Every structure is written in structure tokens, then in C-alpha cells.
Amino acid sequence: MSFTSFIRKLEKNKKIILNNPVNPVHTKIVEYEEITHKIIGAAYQVYNQLGFGFLESVYHKAMVIELSKHDLKVESEKQLKVFYEDQVVGDFYIDLFIENTVVVELKSVKNLLKEHEVQMVNYLNGLKKEIGLLINFGSSGVEVKRKYRKPHLVG
Q1: Neighbours of 132 (CB within 10 A)
Q2: At what angle do helices 24-50 and 56-69 cross, to 10 degrees?
Q3: Most CB atoms closer than 10 Å: which of 14, 22, 74, 109?
Q4: What span, in angstroms and rounded, lies between the C-alpha atoms of 117 and 133?
Q5: pLDDT in tens, 56-73
Q6: Whether the Cβ atoms of residue 33 and residue 11 lie closer than 8 Å to each other
Q7: pTM here?
């Protein structure tokens, strides 16, 4: 699928969601759609240029360049502190943090594993963010998995 076809398909899907009756779940999804579409489109652009076989760090740098072209605020290697009983017990670094909203974890592996998905959900919980994209630059193309954090209920 070409990049242009991909964007047209996303635009069509966005209209379908926007035309649905108001639903809190759909409203939340629509809120992130524009940003996630740009991120996914950037991943396809990077893959179309580079193909498969590079280290994750190469795709990471290329994604920062491509996302910057779309005027998105990109934080690279954002530090995440892990707490246990109000004490810091470790640090992690997420690959990309876009527009203070979307957590992006990049991979360059043959296939994504369940462990990669669990890692993304842990990042979302740690940052208290609602949506993350797990993007793999794999041998058969770009693979994207959206992950959502289940909000903790107060009260």
C-alpha cells in the first residue's frame, strides 16, 4: 500500500468514526486520531525509504526527522521513573513521546512479542497516558499495535 493510499484510508475511517453518535469511547479515540495518523504515516515513510534490516536506533533517528516535518513536538528517549512505595526503584526510557500525549515504542524485530505489548502498557501506566503505539519495522513491513491504558477509577 502506498503512503498516499494509506492516508486516504485513514481519512475515510476518521469520517466514519466522527459521524457516529456521541460515545465517550469514540470521543477519546477521535481525540488522538490526528496525531496517531501522522505518527503511523511517518513510520511508513521511514520504512519506504529505509526498508528492513537496520538497528532500532536508525529507525528511531529517522522517525524523529520525519515527525519533525509534520510539526509534531517530539521528545526522544524520555525518562520514566519507576516507584515502589514512593521510592524510585528504577528508570526506563521510552523511545518517543509525541505532543505530550502519545507514547511510541519502536522495534526492529521479525515479529512483535507479547512482552513488547506488556512493556508498552507499563509505560502508559507509568506516565499516566492513555494511548501508545508499538511500531515494528519488520521484515514484512511496518506493524503497528495501538495500546490503551485503562484509566484508574477514583472513589
Answers
A1: 26
A2: 120
A3: 74
A4: 9
A5: 999 999 999 999 999 999
A6: no
A7: 0.76
